[in-house]
Amino acid sequence: MSYRSNQIDKIKQLMEFTQLSEKDSIQTLKATNWNLQLAINSFYENPQRPDIISVDGTMNLCNDLDIEPTQLEFLLLSHQLNSERMGEFSREGFINGCTQLEADSIDKLKKKLQTTLINNYHSDEGFRKIYNYAFLFGRQTGQKSLGLEAAIELWRLLLGDRSSLLEEWIKFLQECHNKAISRDTWNLFLDFVSQVDMNLENYDSEGAWPILIDE
């Protein structure tokens, strides 16, 4: 059976988003009268499937978007899709995040990632939102603090080109602290590197800095 060009596009898009076979994608689209959004909803509402895009699905998505889970782009995408755990996306978060971006295909999502999300990140407000989110994103389930190695990776990702003090801070943590990072320390370190010069001439020891920084 032949299909119209717009139907072929929808088949390809549904296959990209869900990893369904061509046959299953066609059946799902037919069942929803070729409404792509309803077809995606139907896929995730299927009781035989979990309501979560797990690690395998996330890796497929990264491959489709030509990004790695260790890249900044993945963190930005995770924030946009309201991921509460590294490497997983909920159906609701995924659909709402893509809808806000008006991205109903992999190509559109890739473009929005490289334009809208990157541009938002480079604003002061956007950067702080991502920085605050990174602490929650990087924690292990059930933990209040962020593991030291995870914190270091995220600091280098977010502050590597913003702070000349970062490597000295990391060296101190590895040699003298070697413990998980609290949310208070995470948040106030950003304020510290934003306000204090490299030579520390304007450092105020009476300021509201974490005890670790005073050390």
Topology:
Blueprint: H1 5-18, H2 22-31, H3 36-45, E1 52-53, H4 55-65, H5 72-80, E2 89-90, H6 91-101, H7 106-121, H8 124-138, H9 148-159, H10 166-177, H11 183-195, H12 211-214
Antiparallel strand pairs: 1-2
How is this structure best described in words?
There is one protein chain. This protein has a two-stranded antiparallel sheet with strand order 1-2. Helix 5 crosses helix 7 and helix 5 crosses helix 8. The protein folds into three domains: 41 residues, Helicase, Ruva Protein, domain 3 (Orthogonal Bundle); 70 residues, EF-hand (Recoverin, domain 1, Orthogonal Bundle); 89 residues, Orthogonal Bundle (Recoverin, domain 1), CATH 1.10.238. Helix content is 64%, strand content 2%. It is an all-alpha fold and 215 residues long. It contains twelve helices and two strands; from the N terminus they run αααβααβααααααα. It is elongated.
Biggest sheet descriptor? 2 strands, antiparallel
CATH H-level name of the largest domain... which superfamily? Cullin, PONY binding domain
For the secondary structure, the number of strands is 2
Mean pLDDT: 83
Residue share in β-strands: under 5%
Short characterization:
This protein is mainly alpha-helical and 215 residues long. It is 64% helix and 2% strand. The protein folds into three domains: 5-45, Helicase, Ruva Protein, domain 3, CATH 1.10.8; 52-121, Recoverin, domain 1; 125-213, Cullin, PONY binding domain (Recoverin, domain 1), CATH 1.10.238.
